[in-house]
Amino acid sequence: MDHFYQLGWQLDPLGGSSGEAYKAEQDGRKLFLKRNASPFLAALSAEGIVPKLVWTKRIETGEVVTAQHWKNGRELTKEDMGGARVAQLMRKIHTSEPLLTMLKRLGMKPMLPELLLFKIQSSLSPKVNAHHVVRQAIQYLENNVPAIDIKDCRVCHGDVNHHNWLLSDTDELFLVDWEGAMIADPAIDLGMILYPYVNRRDWQEWLSGYGVKLSNDLLARMKWYTFVQAITMIQWYEDRKRFKEMNDWILFLSKVIEKDRLI
Fold first, then answer.
1. Which of 61, 132, 133, 217 keeps 20 to 30 A from 249, CA to CA?
2. What SUPFAM superfamilies does the record point to (predicted)?
């Protein structure tokens, strides 16, 4: 990012797994810079899902850098996730035709359940695959693959944990970090909000704010995708030898299995 240093910007790396995001300041102006962001960012900005895109530039290295308005604010708390505004923004995302059209233009195909199951089956380490909770979940996945109509697949974020939600100081709500965006069954996002953050007795009310009724079909699909995402996270943390987080996800998966067994 030497180009921006030379232009007098002060850059502060923001960490994260990609190492490609910066807070940039110059003469009191603040921007959020990112290298090699997806063209999908422009559509997200136009829909008001992320902070407004200011410009996109190709620099001397050939990399593309995007700049968005810097928003002071905070992450959502776990308690915030049960609020109506989260439900409404998820609804906006899942029903957006411009977002869906953009991902299709970028060549993205629907992420159907069969493909998700294959990816898990082919990527698990022997240690994770042998864990009794994971084995129980995988058996469930294999025996209960949802039948999804491609026409019902929408734009999904894929990692809707509370750290990826930003509430600005001016009370604007954004969902950020879209690197895992996909075209898929919206239940893949809904399950990872309801299971970790919302008491089961409040699911119907939350989903009413989202715009759907709680049905047995939706319940089954959310459970299936929650198993997929929990196992994926278990393997992700095991790969990085972050065993506390891995065990936290195993505990989460075990609780989901036990809760559904009691219903």
1. 217
2. Protein kinase-like (PK-like) (SSF56112)
What's the CA angle centered on 261, arms 189 and 237, to 5 degrees?
50
What is the spatial distance between Cα 248 and Cα 132, in angstroms, rounded to a whole number? 15
DSSP 240: T
Residue 64 CA to residue 33 CA, distance in Å, equals 10
d(CA 20, CA 9): 16
* Contact of 51 with 32, CB cutoff 8 Å: yes
Cβ neighbours of 89 (radius 10 Å): 17
pTM of the model: 0.91
> Do residues 189 and 89 touch, judged by C-beta distance below 8 A?
no
What letter would DSSP give residue 228? H
Structure tokens at 105: 């233009």
What are the residue numbers of the active site? 159
Inter-residue contact 211 to 190 (CB < 8 Å): no
Packing angle between helix 187-197 and helix 84-94, nearest 10 degrees? 170
Q: How far is CA 255 from CA 12, 146, 148, 200, 245, in A?
A: 40, 22, 26, 13, 15
Give the domain CATH number at 30: 3.30.200.20
Pair 136, 242 in one domain: yes
* Number of domains making up the chain: 2
Say what the pLDDT of residue 84 is.
97
* Three-class SS state of 10: strand
> Each residue of 102-157: pLDDT tens digit?
999 999 999 999 999 999 999 999 999 999 999 999 999 999 999 999 999 999 99
Packed helices 187-197 and 203-210: angle between N→C axes, nearest 10 degrees: 140
Please indicate, yes or no, whether residues 58 and 83 belong to a single structural domain of this protein.
no
Q: What angle do CA 208, 213, 217 make, to 5 degrees?
A: 145
